[in-house]
């Protein structure tokens, strides 16, 4: 990736000023202490009668240390960085491995009174004493929750150094080390300082001098939803009364550093810069609602490895409204949230408005290293390249699309095993190249199924302002963000959009018959509600959740089938019941056509899965020839029908001319779940889970089909269906090496596709012809009604707002997630009696192998002898 950084030239006079920490006097000397990097100094004794006194591991009042203590109360620990990313309470994070004192739920079945611990230090007459200790607290506190730290010199009068108090009318925001923030009521104060889950240093003077100093911590905490923690207890000689005035001014570049994570996590800082992206959650018209804004440095450090931008998290309903071009000063704590460095703001001050923005960093794909994106995290960026809309699976739910730069002058990113041999060096190169050629475009919002959906051009996504996979986006302006495991662009304005892949009408062939393969995405008449169970094994139902969804689903599937207008249709993912679902779909298509155009092959239940394959056919065009046949485990043990759906084979006879065709509908095991129970693991060669299961099924199939299971006496066989394998993968090679032709590859080329996954296209939906049939096929085409369509258009109403539901149209587009494959065929006709050879008819007839007759006698001889 090429990155161009430029320096911002801006004059804001004396708007920004440094606010450095006032250092303690050079005369201050730490003469004693405990829990300083797990060590003690001049500690005479330590006493705590409550050590290991509580029966519940959630209760505690004692010293602990990560990796050393047998058990530490959960409420004290902030495990959100790695151990438990869903943690919502804690103080001592994963990076703090030093000894500390933790307090939580001391009022419990084992104890009801305040508890205390004592330290006795040797102070040997040191003058001007003071105490310094780091304290953290998080929870919804009550006045009954408290702690005090007192001191007594040589057994004299106890002095109260630090005392807690609760603001029962207030609230506070706490940000865990992993970045998650929580708003809790009734914060705790130590003296006049509000505490948080980030340890803060609290200082207090000690009057007098002597030989020994006893420090006593007394506390009471009732409940497991709040905790205190103490660390770095120090006794200081030469103590200065003045306290630090606040955090230091730190540059954005220093906060970001040169790596993926900040080294200043947990630090309180002042940061200053110019707002380049406004995503506050307020009533103003902003770029989004990420609950904050992006700040970029006014004075870049010149190091291309350090980002000059950062996200400022200021929560919901922030008190200060910022705008792009504002110069602001922020005080807050540094943390990482979902991989992104941020500052959680305690205060925001606008120092100037309407300033010129820094020039946007120019990015270009491919991206060779994520550090290239990390180095511009939070900064203003622009992508001027024309990029293809590559993935939109999360568009309806999260407002995300994936943009890509296709390789080698291709139109789309191609699934590697659709082009290259699995596991080969060429496969690996393409796999890496594809991963480097993509980036996510977000919508600047955190809400799910946001209303309205936003088009990449910045306007509302609607029926008259939609996009499809393969359309183009260019001149994209925004800021670089990181969340949920991916770098993403949060737009600050709409991009230039070009419709380069418009919808097309259904293909029409000048052929005698057409055959289609169509995965109908779980067409279930049994609704997935009220605990309904489906299939012969009482499995979970799939498909529509309610009658409204089912009616929408039916309208789309029926519209697609009517438009496809095939003579024979192989259906994949029909509910596996005796005939209800298949009959319902057939009747629905006929209802639209106005007569009994289609019939279905009544197979009853096939196999054990909740779904099965099926066949419908036009009664005017073709008729079934004999009984259907199925391939399952009972026929060949290599075909594991616990995982693959049984194959359905039916022979048809063309009514007009008498040609014979056998159609085999397949649905092999998906890549989505493992087959480790069958000894089949993902070999990491691009073929995914269960490749051996699919390949064994393919081997069983080619052996079975060679036996002519329907006794057709005709070698014309068309294999269709969802084989869950791309065309360079083992199962497809097994079938083609037995003499079948990959018709999609033959007629649509190497870059054909019927499915989109992970921003890459390829075809899992196949049409494969036996060697004799191949010459009778006149065309094959994938009709792109589904793979290129965002699923915001589908029948499913789950989570969708009213405006998204209103995008539904009762047409073929996004009727499923797989595109149908349509094959046009002019079948050869084989004479079955001598009368067909008379009067020149022999010229239109063929042998089974497709060869023609020389004359009438040659034709009659074939009828008599079969040769």
Task: Describe the protein in words.
Helix content is about 10%, strand content about 35%. A 10-stranded mixed beta sheet has the order 1-26-27-32-33-30-29-28-31-34. Strands 2, 3, 5, 8, 10, 17 and 19 form a 7-stranded antiparallel beta sheet that branches. A 7-stranded antiparallel beta sheet has the order 4-9-18-11-12-15-16, with no helix packed on it. Strand 26, helix 2 and strand 27 (about 380-385) form a beta-alpha-beta unit. The longest helix is centred in the middle third of the chain and has 18 residues, at about 545-565. It is elongated, with a radius of gyration of 36 Å. Mean pLDDT is about 95; it is low at about 1-25.
Short description, anyone?
The chain has 867 residues and is mostly beta strands. 12% of the residues lie in helices and 33% in strands. The longest helix has 18 residues, at 547-564.
Largest sheet: 10 strands, mixed
Judged by helices, strands and strand pairing, the structural class is mainly beta
Which value, in Å, is the CA radius of gyration? 36 Å
What fraction strand? 25-35%
- The end-to-end span amounts to 66 Å
- Mean pLDDT across every amino acid position: 93
Shape: elongated
Which strands sit side by side, in order, in the main sheet? 1-26-27-32-33-30-29-28-31-34
Total strand segments = 51
Amount of helix = 10-25%
List low-confidence stretches: 1-26
Number of helices: 12
């Amino acid at each position: 990736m090429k990155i161009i950084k430029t320096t911002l030239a801006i004059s804001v006079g004396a708007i920004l000023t440094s606010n450095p920490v006032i250092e303690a006097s050079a005369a201050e000397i730490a003469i004693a202490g405990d829990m300083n990097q797990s060590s003690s100094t001049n500690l005479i004794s330590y006493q705590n009668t409550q050590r290991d006194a509580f029966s519940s591991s959630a209760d505690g009042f004692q010293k602990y240390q990560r990796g050393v203590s047998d058990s530490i109360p959960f409420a004290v620990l902030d495990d959100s960085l790695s151990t438990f990313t869903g943690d919502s309470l804690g103080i001592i994070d994963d990076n703090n491995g030093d000894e500390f004192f933790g307090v939580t739920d001391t009022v419990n079945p084992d104890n009801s009174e305040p508890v205390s611990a004592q330290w006795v230090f040797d102070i040997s007459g040191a003058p001007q004493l003071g105490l310094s200790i780091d304290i953290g607290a998080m929870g919804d506190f009550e006045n009954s929750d408290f702690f005090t730290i007192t001191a007594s010199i040589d057994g004299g009068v106890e002095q109260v150094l630090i005392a807690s108090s609760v603001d029962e009318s207030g609230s506070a925001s706490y940000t865990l080390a992993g970045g998650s923030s929580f708003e809790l009521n009734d914060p705790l104060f130590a003296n006049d300082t509000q505490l948080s889950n980030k340890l803060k240093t609290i200082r207090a003077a000690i009057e007098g001098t002597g030989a020994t100093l006893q420090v006593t911590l007394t506390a009471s905490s009732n409940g497991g939803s709040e905790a205190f923690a103490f660390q770095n207890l120090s006794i200081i000689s030469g103590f200065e009364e003045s306290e630090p005035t606040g955090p230091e001014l730190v540059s954005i570049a220093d906060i970001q550093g040169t790596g993926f994570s900040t080294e200043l996590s947990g630090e309180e800082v002042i940061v200053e810069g110019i707002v380049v992206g406004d995503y506050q959650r307020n009533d103003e018209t902003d770029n989004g609602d990420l609950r904050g804004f992006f700040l970029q440095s006014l004075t870049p450090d010149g190091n291309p490895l350090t980002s000059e931008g950062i996200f400022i998290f200021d929560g919901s309903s922030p008190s200060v409204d910022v705008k792009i071009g504002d110069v602001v000063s922020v005080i807050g704590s540094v943390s990482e949230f979902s991989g992104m460095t941020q500052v959680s703001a305690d205060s925001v001050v606008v120092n100037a408005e309407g300033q010129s923005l820094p020039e946007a960093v120019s990015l270009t794909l491919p991206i060779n290293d994520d550090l290239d994106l990390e180095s511009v995290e939070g900064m203003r960026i622009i992508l001027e390249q024309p990029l293809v809309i590559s993935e939109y699976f999360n568009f309806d739910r999260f407002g995300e699309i994936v943009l890509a730069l296709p390789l080698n002058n291709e139109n789309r990113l191609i699934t590697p095993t659709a082009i290259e041999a699995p596991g080969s060096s060429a496969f690996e190169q393409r796999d890496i190249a594809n991963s480097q050629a993509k980036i996510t475009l977000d919508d600047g919002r955190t809400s799910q199924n946001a209303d309205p959906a936003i088009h990449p051009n910045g306007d509302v996504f609607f029926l008259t302002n939609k996009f499809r996979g393969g359309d183009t986006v260019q001149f994209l302006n925004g800021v670089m963000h990181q969340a949920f495991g991916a770098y993403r662009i949060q737009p600050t304005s709409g991009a230039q959009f070009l419709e380069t892949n418009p919808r097309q009408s259904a293909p029409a062939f000048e052929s005698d018959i057409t055959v289609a393969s169509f995965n109908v995405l779980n067409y279930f008449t049994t609704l997935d509600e009220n605990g309904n169970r489906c299939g012969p094994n009482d499995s979970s139902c799939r498909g529509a959740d309610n009658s409204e969804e089912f009616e929408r689903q039916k309208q789309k599937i029926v519209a697609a089938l009517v438009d496809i207008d095939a003579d024979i249709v192989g259906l994949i993912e029909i509910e596996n019941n005796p005939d209800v679902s298949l009959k319902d779909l057939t009747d629905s298509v006929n209802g639209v056509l106005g007569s009994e155009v289609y019939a279905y092959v009544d197979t009853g239940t096939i196999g054990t899965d909740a779904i099965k394959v099926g066949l419908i056919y036009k009664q005017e065009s073709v008729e079934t020839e004999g009984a259907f046949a199925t391939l399952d485990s009972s026929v060949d043990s290599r075909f594991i029908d616990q995982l693959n759906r049984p194959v359905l084979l039916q022979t048809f006879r063309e009514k007009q001319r008498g040609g014979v065709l056998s159609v085999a509908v397949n649905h092999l095991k998906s890549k989505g779940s493992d087959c480790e129970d069958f000894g089949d693991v993902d070999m990491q060669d691009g073929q995914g889970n269960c490749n051996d299961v699919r390949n064994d099924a393919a081997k069983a199939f080619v052996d079975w089909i060679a036996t002519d299971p329907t006794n057709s006496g005709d070698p014309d066989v068309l294999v269709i269906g969802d084989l869950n394998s791309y065309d360079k993968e083992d199962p497809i090679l097994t079938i083609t090496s037995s003499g079948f032709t990959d018709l999609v590859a033959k007629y649509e080329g190497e870059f054909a596709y019927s499915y989109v996954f992970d921003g890459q296209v390829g075809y899992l939906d196949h049409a494969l012809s036996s060697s004799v049939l191949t010459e009778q096929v006149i065309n094959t085409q994938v009709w792109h009604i589904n793979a290129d369509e965002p699923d915001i258009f589908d029948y499913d109403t789950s989570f969708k707002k009213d405006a998204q539901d209103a995008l539904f149209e009762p047409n073929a587009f996004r009727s499923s997630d797989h595109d149908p494959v349509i094959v046009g065929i002019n079948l050869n006709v084989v004479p079955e009696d001598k009368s067909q050879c008379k009067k020149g008819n022999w010229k239109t007839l063929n042998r089974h192998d497709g060869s023609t007759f020389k004359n009438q006698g040659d034709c009659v001889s074939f009828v008599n002898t079969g040769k």
